[in-house]
């Protein structure tokens, strides 16, 4: 008596799992809050981009520091932290000084990158976003002038601990290094050259400069375009 052939078992094809789409991380920007912002602020501080006290709140001071690292990295300057800016943060991008070891303490203003750097013996110790001369012409009292920030080696020669109501606008706590050209506070520090010739920094930054004596009289100031 022969046995009946056993039925060949059938197997169902294994279903391919549907990949889970991970939403890209949300950009950090003005108004963002929380641990991610706190980590950002601490990283900026570690890299020398001044942004005040880390408090987990993305405000104007943090935005200025983000603009500074974006300028140093040569990427888009929008003051928000997206993938490219995060990559620069992760890579530890920092600007380099033009002065060399043995040059002592000075401030460097890089017109091309629009950065103001505090430098000691060729090493950048702190970096600020700045906005210098727009290189556009303007008219004052019937005369046409070029809004440029001249290059060269200078020294801080005078300062005003208050508001200087200048003919072209207010200068907050200015430190003059080349005639009427100064590092001064302003409520508007965009990611591009926009001043009449001065090196603008945020009001919070100029307050920090005064409070920590970062730019005393006779400090060397080097201004260059490349």
Automatic annotation (TrEMBL):
Q: Where is the composition biased (Low complexity)?
A: 1-23
Q: Which CDD domains match?
A: YkuD_like
Keyword list (alphabetical) reads: Cell shape, Cell wall biogenesis/degradation, Peptidoglycan synthesis, Transferase
Which SUPFAM superfamilies does its entry note? Answer: L,D-transpeptidase catalytic domain-like, PGBD-like
Q: Which residues form the active site?
A: 184 (proton donor/acceptor), 198 (nucleophile)
Q: Does the keyword Cell wall biogenesis/degradation apply?
A: yes
Question: Looking at the keywords, is Transferase present?
Answer: yes
Listed Pfam families: PG_binding_1, YkuD
Check the record and name the Gene3D superfamilies matching this protein: L,D-transpeptidase catalytic domain-like, PGBD-like superfamily/PGBD
Q: Where is this region: Disordered?
A: 1-32
Listed name of the protein? L,D-transpeptidase family protein
